[in-house]
Write a sequence for this structure.
């Protein structure tokens, strides 16, 4: 990855958030930030990367925006250019609430936007993902996603969806959409949808950072703590999840001594803290499932009965094909692969490799080798991540007696 | 400041009996008065039912006169209010109060251009 690319991943969201506050318009902000990155591509190879690349991008984007407003010389724009010049630049951080990115999050997750649009906007404007990457995360064609983003930004502008963190009274209601969006940013980072790297650390770190900010902002919301706990427990296994050669190590095969003990302890403490409040929600239960895995010193010591009970609870709270699929994995451990295989029949997860991959594993364990091989092929046909593909190919090759 | 159209979405059929309707109308009136007091009220009207509608359809050089609403539906816009508001959240807050007062859906739509 080039220097500019690295800075882009790191600071696109922050720069767009700052510029949106300065310009009052997301499209104008994105355009200015993209201009700044183009300038960086031209200059940095010769001049070297500036000492504070993220700050350079914001300053350059602001100057580009002023140039543009001056050129497009309507009177309103000239006033805006003057106002921008008078602005001494982005003020220092004043706690989580004032964070421009938090503001951007609440705007992207406004309830007047369709849920799918909220997550897409968050991934684009906060996570800095490309349209293609978001399309893959959503399992939809890229053109569909591009149109969804354009429409959503059009609605923010036309309906004047405000750029601010909601008032205290409205916060709880506005939270659900934000939590869902942050969670998806993490899952995209956790298993990058495309490319040759399994984990996009920047997105994972970003999602954890956002979850921490939310926990600071709303320490009394159990679901916020639940989301943070879930992300921390997941994050604790990041190093163990990828082998030195870059290949995927599934949970039962992970070297548990490589789990980050501090993150495990923090996650488990959070799970206990939020569950004590007696208002369990989907994130808290998912965190409790991960805490159960973290409790086991070896894979064999996993309390699968408890994991299955938690999945039953989760399926009641938030039924979805993905939850049903994960529950089936727990069923396989408690009642055997045949019982789990039957549960997969009614599930429909188009364009995802997860369902055929789980099916393949269950068939393999049942000794139905030819069917397992066919299921691995189905999974391979849709898996976009090179590391996951390599894992599936390895598993397929390990089948004995397959053609 | 922007303007928003708050459409009251009403089901087709007879309106509720007076003993139900009257307290609703009092609540709606109270919201409208508050809106005026806040300087947010721009314009409002209650509409007759869609059976009273007539549609004009240009056809070549002619304009045809046809009975009925433009689109037959199970719901129709029974009335509307135009409010002035800083942003969507402020408009939604007024809409929310109408929705509570009437028990009916409110469609909040930004006004694009006031000059036409």
């Amino acid at each position: 990855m080039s220097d500019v690319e690295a800075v882009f991943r790191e600071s696109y969201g922050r720069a767009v958030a700052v510029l949106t506050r300065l310009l009052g318009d997301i499209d104008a902000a994105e355009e200015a930030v993209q201009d700044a990155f183009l300038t960086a591509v031209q200059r940095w190879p010769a001049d070297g990367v500036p000492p504070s690349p993220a700050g350079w991008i914001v300053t350059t984007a602001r100057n580009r925006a002023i140039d543009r407003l001056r050129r497009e010389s309507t009177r309103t724009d000239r006033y805006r250019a003057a106002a921008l010049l008078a602005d001494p630049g982005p003020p220092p951080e004043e706690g989580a609430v004032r964070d421009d990115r938090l503001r951007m999050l609440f705007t992207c997750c406004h309830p007047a936007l369709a849920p799918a649009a909220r997550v897409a906007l968050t991934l684009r404007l906060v996570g800095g993902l490309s349209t293609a990457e978001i399309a893959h995360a959503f399992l939809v064609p890229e053109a569909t996603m591009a149109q969804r983003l354009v429409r959503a930004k059009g609605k923010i502008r036309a309906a004047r969806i405000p750029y601010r963190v909601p008032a205290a009274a409205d916060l709880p209601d506005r939270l659900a959409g934000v939590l869902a969006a942050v969670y998806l940013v993490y899952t995209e980072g956790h298993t990058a949808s495309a490319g040759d790297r399994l984990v996009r650390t920047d997105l994972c770190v970003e999602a954890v950072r956002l979850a921490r900010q939310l926990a600071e902002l709303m320490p009394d919301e159990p679901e916020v703590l639940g989301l943070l706990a879930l992300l921390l427990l997941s994050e604790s296994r990041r190093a163990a999840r990828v082998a030195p050669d870059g290949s995927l190590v599934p949970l039962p095969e992970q070297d548990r001594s490589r789990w980050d003990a501090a993150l495990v302890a923090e996650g488990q403490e959070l799970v206990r803290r939020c569950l004590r409040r007696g208002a369990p929600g989907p994130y808290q239960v998912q965190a409790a499932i991960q805490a159960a895995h973290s409790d086991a010193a070896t894979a064999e010591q996993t309390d699968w009965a408890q994991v299955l009970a938690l999945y039953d609870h989760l399926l009641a709270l938030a039924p979805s094909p993905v939850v049903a699929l994960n529950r089936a994995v727990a069923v396989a451990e408690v009642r055997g692969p045949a019982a789990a295989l039957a549960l997969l029949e009614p599930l429909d997860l188009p364009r995802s490799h997860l369902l055929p991959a789980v099916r393949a594993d269950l068939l393999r364990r049942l000794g139905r080798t030819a069917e397992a091989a066919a299921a691995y092929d189905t999974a391979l046909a849709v898996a976009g991540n090179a590391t996951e593909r390599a894992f599936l190919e390895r598993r397929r090759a390990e089948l004995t007696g397959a053609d | 400041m922007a303007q928003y159209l708050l459409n009251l979405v009403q089901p087709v059929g007879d309106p509720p009996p007076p003993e139900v309707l009257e307290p609703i109308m009092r609540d709606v009136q109270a919201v409208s008065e508050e809106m005026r007091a806040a300087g947010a009220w721009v314009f409002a009207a209650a509409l007759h039912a869609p059976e009273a509608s007539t549609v004009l359809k240009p056809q070549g050089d002619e304009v045809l006169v046809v009975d009925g609403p433009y689109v037959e539906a199970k719901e129709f816009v029974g009335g509307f209010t135009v409010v002035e508001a800083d942003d969507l959240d402020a408009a939604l807050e007024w809409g929310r109060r109408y929705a509570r007062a009437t028990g009916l859906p409110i469609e909040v739509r930004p006004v694009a251009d006031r000059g036409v």
Summary: Chain B touches chain A through nine residues (CB under 8 Å). Chain B has one domain: 2-48+74-110. Helices of chain B lie at 18-37, 88-102. The longest strand of chain B covers residues 75-85.
